[in-house]
Design goal:
The protein is α/β, with parallel strands linked by helices and about 140 residues long. It is about 25% helix and about 25% strand. Strands 1, 2, 3, 4, 5, 6 and 7 form a 7-stranded mixed sheet that branches. It is globular and about 40 Å long.
């Protein structure tokens, strides 16, 4: 049985299908590739890069600094255990999936989409640490 101290928190960045009349698959993918570039994420066949202290934990808010000069991405309801592991100096594996994940998809659908994306080189990763007490 694995100990809690050995657990690795994960953060999956995904997106639903493009919104008609507003987005295209290309514009969504370009935006995500810009995020991946700003965070210096790499493909799965490369070493997992340390992308620095991109997670911000301030009170009950947890956010990801993805490289935008004005905005951060709020992490929706991470568990207390997830936050504690990262806050204690651990790393979270940030995974950005370039393929759309259907809105409202359950765990099995998300895992299937992610597995497919990983197998096709359409997922990028990095190891992020946290700044605790910093304002997002």
């Amino acid at each position: 049985m694995r100990k809690v101290e050995d657990a690795v928190p994960w953060l999956l960045i995904g997106h639903p299908s493009p919104r008609p009349l507003v987005e295209t698959r290309e514009t969504v993918e370009d935006g995500h590739l810009g995020m991946a570039d700003a965070m210096e994420l790499s493909h799965l066949d490369e070493l997992v890069p340390d992308i620095g202290d991109r997670l911000l934990i301030c009170g009950r808010i947890t956010a990801l600094d993805y490289g935008h000069p004005m905005f951060v991405l709020q992490v929706p309801k991470p568990s207390a255990q997830w936050r504690e592991l990262v806050a204690r100096g651990g790393h979270a594996c940030v995974t950005l999936c370039l393929d759309p994940i259907p809105a409202g998809a359950g765990r099995d659908a998300v895992e299937a989409c992610l597995s497919s994306s990983m197998a096709n080189g359409r997922a990028l990763i990095g190891a992020a640490s946290a700044r605790v007490g910093s304002r997002p």
